[in-house]
Amino acid sequence: MKLRLLAIFLVALSFPLFVHSLVRHYKFRVVLKNSTKLCSTKSFVTVNGKFPGPTLYAREDDTVIVKVNNHVKYNITIHWHGIKQLQTGWSDGPAYVTQCPIQPGQSYVYNFTLTGQRGTLLWHAHITWLRATMHGAIVILPKRGIPYPFPKPDKEKIIILGEWWKSDVEAVVNEATNSGLPPNISDAHTINGHPGPVPSCTSHGYTLHVESGKTYLLRIINAALNDELFFKIAGHNLKVVEADASYVKPFEIETIFLSPGQTTNAILTANQGVGKYLIAVTPFMDAPTIGFDNMTSIATLRYKGTPPYPKTILTTIPPLNATPVTTSFTDSLRSLNSNSYPAKVPLTIDHSLFFAITVGINPCATCANGIKLASAINNLTFLLPTISLLQAHYYNIKGVFTDDFPAYPPIIFNYTGTQPDNLQTNNGTKLYRLNFNSTVQIVLQGTAMIAPENHPFHLHGYNFFVVGQGLGNFDPEKDPSRFNLVDPVERNTLSVPNGGWIAIRFRADNPGVWFLHCHLEVHTTWGLKMAFVVDNGRGPNESLLPPPKDLPKC
Ligand SMILES: *[C@@H]1O[C@H](CO)[C@@H](O)[C@H](O)[C@H]1NC(C)=O
Ligand SMILES: *[C@@H]1O[C@H](CO)[C@@H](O)[C@H](O)[C@H]1NC(C)=O
Ligand SMILES: *[C@@H]1O[C@H](CO)[C@@H](O)[C@H](O)[C@H]1NC(C)=O
Ligand SMILES: *[C@@H]1O[C@H](CO)[C@@H](O)[C@H](O)[C@H]1NC(C)=O
Ligand SMILES: *[C@@H]1O[C@H](CO)[C@@H](O)[C@H](O)[C@H]1NC(C)=O
Ligand SMILES: *[C@@H]1O[C@H](CO)[C@@H](O)[C@H](O)[C@H]1NC(C)=O
Ligand SMILES: *[C@@H]1O[C@H](CO)[C@@H](O)[C@H](O)[C@H]1NC(C)=O
Ligand SMILES: *[C@@H]1O[C@H](CO)[C@@H](O)[C@H](O)[C@H]1NC(C)=O
Ligand SMILES: *[C@@H]1O[C@H](CO)[C@@H](O)[C@H](O)[C@H]1NC(C)=O
Ligand SMILES: *[C@@H]1O[C@H](CO)[C@@H](O)[C@H](O)[C@H]1NC(C)=O
Q1: Is there an atom of ligand 5 within 6 Å of 324 CB?
Q2: N or C: which end of the chain has fewer CB within 10 A?
Q3: Residue 198 has pLDDT above 70, yes or no
């Protein structure tokens, strides 16, 4: 009897001591949902009937297993945005890049381990425009027993920003593809699935409940399709502590700026008078456009003990073209770069690439005006193949892609000056090949062609360091001397400013095929994307794992 008690005691004691990582299982049922709170009677695609979808909670080093069952009429895939997927490219998710789609009635198990990351990320569909309503949060807690590098907030809240169309989003993108014209703009921005109290809508908006004196870790996600967004709370500054699941040097700011695909953790201290405060989400666009969803979405921060019918304390919102507000946010971001979380910036570069981002016009006999909009990197409009690039790479299937993606633009011009006369683009499925563990620098240069604007670029399979950014044309003589190689921010998505450039670096220590694309879905659709093929290194620990048995077929 005593021995048994002792054994139970030992087991109980050993649990927190020896069980460091867990396997966490999730079931994602892809189903249709109807919702009246969104001021529309359309049904839309969701995971588990939730909008936003379910949150994945895990700790660093855990393995996450998600079984996805497709019960809708659309092909689907899911991307775990920002998860590095070390050796598990088969679980990354972009359709025709790392897998064929999960077809109606089929299922697929995503299986990946969370290595060297902690913070907030998001998951979303990665095929056509389905991510508009298929997305959710990923929360990666630090390893058991490891504290945050900042005082532990009393509570945590997830805030997901989105973009809502009253019509069916697949109809919106198909209409645009057929006409060759820009797609219809969205009708509203959402905060945790609520558009806020807009006319002829039953939604009362989201309420963030707080208690005086307490601190809250806000895990904020921009899950919008095409719009960069500002986030602001009346009367409260926010202390930013993490971006894209990497810790940053904490800084206080009034307005948070997030591009689609970006995430950030910020601490809110409930230190104002009891009452109701406005939360505002507004879009950012600093280029002239024909049409733009300029709708403000609002929510409420409400202190416990607020009397009934209080007046909401309001705030000013940044103007649509508030470039300085975006710069003051991005310029404040620095890697924590502590002993525990060093910034391992590559100091020597094996591949120095220069990618010019353009929007062009190609002939199209079936389109409304005989032309269609296209987008390109180094004048190449990327075409997805009909089987996945990763399969073609792994099984060495010829004729799917070539590995001659251009490292430089074919024509050098004044990128931010007058546009060239010829606006046509080339197209193809070209990849850029990297040796295992080689180092890469990419200067992403915005251009003035047709529709100059911000382009939030997202790299799969890696985080990158943002070593430099600027306006105008990148100057290869002068600009590198100003690079920050000490504590640049480490992230997976960053905007190339309108009429400017960014320089990013990463070490290709993850074998596989990795997508790089503009995270404005409208531009991805137009071809603003490419992929790297990273060869295996030496031995099994530096090689892509074999494909899982249930990998969907094309
Ligand atoms: C959603 O509503 C539409 C129209 O009201 C209806 O035809 C459809 O069956 C509903 N779908 C679901 C999943 O409830
Ligand atoms: C997940 O992948 C690992 C190999 O990395 C494998 O051992 C395990 O069986 C897989 N689990 C499932 C549920 O597929
Ligand atoms: C796009 O907008 C136009 C003009 O408002 C409208 O006629 C069309 O039906 C819309 N398309 C979709 C797919 O909602
Ligand atoms: C928002 O855009 C619409 C056109 O889409 C325009 O009529 C309106 O003036 C704009 N509102 C603001 C505040 O810019
Ligand atoms: C490029 O064009 C811009 C805008 O017209 C101009 O200010 C700049 O001087 C040009 N640069 C070069 C190198 O010609
Ligand atoms: C892009 O390619 C097209 C077709 O080959 C060519 O006509 C055009 O001049 C190129 N444009 C640029 C900016 O490289
Ligand atoms: C790719 O380019 C070729 C040659 O210009 C053109 O005929 C074809 O339509 C283009 N394909 C796409 C999908 O744009
Ligand atoms: C990658 O390269 C760096 C720098 O050359 C080296 O320190 C490191 O050991 C290499 N890693 C592997 C896994 O080969
Ligand atoms: C893989 O294992 C070899 C031999 O143990 C080691 O030298 C190498 O650094 C490992 N690579 C990585 C990426 O851990
Ligand atoms: C779904 O994916 C399969 C495999 O790639 C493809 O053959 C089929 O046309 C796709 N269906 C739709 C509606 O896109």
Answers
A1: no
A2: N
A3: no
Domains and CATH numbers, the chain: 4-141 (2.60.40.420), 155-332 (2.60.40.420), 351-542 (2.60.40.420)
Ligand nearest to the CA of 113: 2
Mapping DSSP onto H, E and C, the string for 185-230 reads: CCCEEEECCECCCCCCCCCCCCEEEECCCCEEEEEEEECCCCCEEE
Tell me the pLDDT band of 88, cut-offs 50, 70 and 90. very high
Please check whether residue 231 is in contact with residue 219, taking contact to mean a CB–CB distance below 8 angstroms: no
User: Which tens digit of pLDDT belongs to each residue from 341-350?
Assistant: 999 999 999 9
- In what order do the strands lie in the sheet containing 493-496? 431-434, 529-534, 512-518, 455-459, 493-496
In the chain, what percentage of residues exceed pLDDT 90?
A: 89
**Taking CB atoms and a 6 Å cutoff, what residues make up the pocket around ligand 10?**
75, 100-101, 103, 554
| Spacing, Cα 160 to ligand 4 middle (Å) | 24
Ligand 2 mutation pick, 62, 111, 112, 551, max ligand atoms within 8 A of CB: 111
Kindly list the protein residues whose Cβ atom lies closer than 6 A to any atom of ligand 9. 539, 541-542
Most informative mutation of 45, 75, 168 for ligand 10 (most atoms within 8 A of CB): 75
- 208-248: pLDDT as tens digits: 999 999 999 999 999 999 999 999 999 999 999 999 999 99
